[in-house]
Amino acid sequence: MLGKGRVIVNTGDGKGKTTAAFGTAFRAAGHGLEVAVVQFIKGSWDYGELNAARRFPNISVTRIGSGYTWMAKDPNVPQQLAREAWAVCLEKAMSGKYDLLVMDELNYAVKEGYVSVEEILALIRNRPSRLSLIITGRDARPELIAEADTVTEMRRIKHAFAQGIRACKGIEY
Ligand code: ATP
Ligand code: MG
After folding, report:
1. What is the pTM of this model?
2. How remote is the C-alpha of 98 from its chain's centroid?
C-alpha cells in the first residue's frame, strides 16, 4: 500500500514538532490508513490534538498517566509511566496492524533516561516494513538522527512565551 515505511524525527527548540506529527497522523487517517499515537507525558495538560485524534476511528490514542498520577510524590512514577508507554509502543509497532505510529515526546523520555536509544534503534530495525514512525521531542540523539530517513529541526526564531504571553488553548495545547 504505502511501500516501505519512513522514520521521521521532528526535533529542535521551536514550535511545531507535535503539531506536525499530528498533521501527518490526520493526513494518513484521511487515506484510511491505520494510525497509533502514543504520547510520553511531560505535564498534565489537556491537549486538544489528542481529543481531536480520538474522533477518528482509525487513530488509536494512548496517553498513560495524565492528570494527578503524574503529580504523585513517588519519584519512580514518571519512569514507570514512561516504561508503560514504551511497552505500548512496542506492542503497537510489532502488532502488524498499523501503517503509522507516532511516539510523541519520546526524545524527552530518552533524555530523562527512561528509554534507551538502543531500544529505539531495535524497534526501528525490527518493525514490520510498512510501518512508518514519527518521533518527536527536543534534543534528538545523534544515533537516532543517523538512523532516520527524514529529520526536521524546528528552530525557534520567536516564541510568544518569551514575551510573557500565556499558553493559548487551541494554539499551544
Ligand atoms: P507544538 O505542540 O505546539 O507543536 P512542540 O511539540 O514543538 O510544539 P514542545 O517542545 O513539545 O513543542 O513544547 C510543548 C509546549 O510548549 C507546546 O505548547 C508548544 O506550543 C510550546 N513551545 C514550543 N516551542 C516553544 C518555545 N521555543 N518556547 C516556549 N514554548 C514553546
Ligand atoms: Mg511537543
Report:
1. 0.93
2. 15
